[in-house]
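Please check our next protein.
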Amino acid sequence: MNSLLARLKRDSFVLTSLVSKDFKVKYRRSILGVLWSVLNPLLMMLVLTVVFSLLFRFRIENFPLYLILGKLIYLMVSNSTSAGLSSIFQSATLIKKIRINKAIFPVEKVIFEMVNFLISLAAVVVVMIYFQVAPTFALLAFPLLLIYMLLFCVGLSLILSALAVFFRDIVHLWSVFCLAWMYLSAIFYPVDILPATAQKAILFNPIYQFICYFRELVMDGTIPSLASNLTCLGMGAVTLAAGILIFRKLQNRFILYV
């Protein structure tokens, strides 16, 4: 028990140090610094609102809020998995020099992006105030969404980071996949414009499920159903279990390929 506690303490220290380092690197020499985590989604929302509400003329109430909620969820999943993907081979020097829990590296990338996601929620508050959307008690269920996304993103990052050590082409393929994933997640458009078969297929898209959950909390002011919670939890838990299994099976060979 003492050795387990010591290992957890050491791993938490390494995680904290790596997250702090990433923040310093990301915002180094930036005048606005962390404020970009708020300004960036707001600026993207303005551009995309013009494109999709004026040019494509989608009629969705409070469309900018609808858009920014979906975009933030997508960015959280996309950014964390893309960073986690390359986390192992980018840490090759450290892995070769010291004995360390290798899973720390993809997990740290997810935690870093989760912190950025939480900071960027200030942009959601600004949009809610502008459109006079009042917060409700349903937001008390928001931590559940964070848990579901954390499980999913950690699991997927473990899978991708392990595979990328052996197949570097995954780095390029994943960027293309994420672009397609964005357009298949009903971020910019109402899902009812899709054909019936596509509407059924999109239910298997984890990002879409997380986005719907977030929109229910913020825009509808309701707590998602038990079925919705079980779906999001199941997607997160299954992905995490698969990630742990694959990562553990491959990690002993990392040192030969990084």
In short: The CA atoms of residues 67 and 188 lie 6 Å apart. The first helix runs from residue 2 to 26. The chain has twelve helices and no strands. The chain has one domain: 2-257.
